[in-house]
Amino acid sequence: MAEETYHLTLSAPGRNALSSDHMNRLVAEIGEANGRPLLLTGADGTFSAGLNLKEVASLDVPGMTRFLQLLDAVMQALYEYAGPTVACVNGHAIAGGCVLALCCDWRVAVDRADVRIGLNEVALGLEFPPMIMNLVRDRIPRRHVERVVLEAGLHDARTARDLGLVDEVAADPLPVAQAALARLAGVPPTTFAATKRTLRNGVLALDDAQQRHFEQRIVPSWCAPETKERITAQLRR
Questions:
Q1: Is-contact 163 144, C-beta < 8 A?
Q2: Is pTM, for the whole model, over 0.85?
Q3: Ordered structural domains, the chain, with CATH
Q4: Neighbours of 145 (CB within 10 A)
Q5: From CA 68, how far away is CA 14, in angstroms rounded?
């Protein structure tokens, strides 16, 4: 590999849950990677169990706006990253964790019976923010989008592969992910970055209607008492 790999590890309490502090760190580290081949994985045998629901349940409308905008910033930094990115999905990749995996150019999941991968937001009564929905429509094959989103299922790795949530499954995913990253990094980096930029240009951009929907519908619905009750019930499990 021409350039040294930058290892970005999801590491936080609650099975690498995405809190504001964790997401701020991720944005900073993606910037530090500066176009080098980037390998994204999780600490302690988990990729990421999703958003930090304790923090989500505590937020008012201004706080929720900032939180979801920060999630958008992480997604955009990873999805539009100039260099090659590969996710080594070494454990659960649920909701926001699955979203981060989808932002990567290639995704290799561990073939382990207990691992679950999927987008279960609808099951929690959470409407997808528009930038996430734009990503999902771009990354998941059209024939599978409605099943993945509306059924809100959490799938084993092989089913996740069949649905397009990951690209490969391996008993030992790290060397497979490293090989995939080396393959992508073998392309001239300037050409790779320019072509990737063309492919992804505007995919995550929100039009005026989507921005209004985010502000007037999504954020208030995430702060609604019934939503917080569902989240609290999930935390008790």
A1: yes
A2: yes
A3: 6-189 (3.90.226.10)
A4: 17
A5: 19
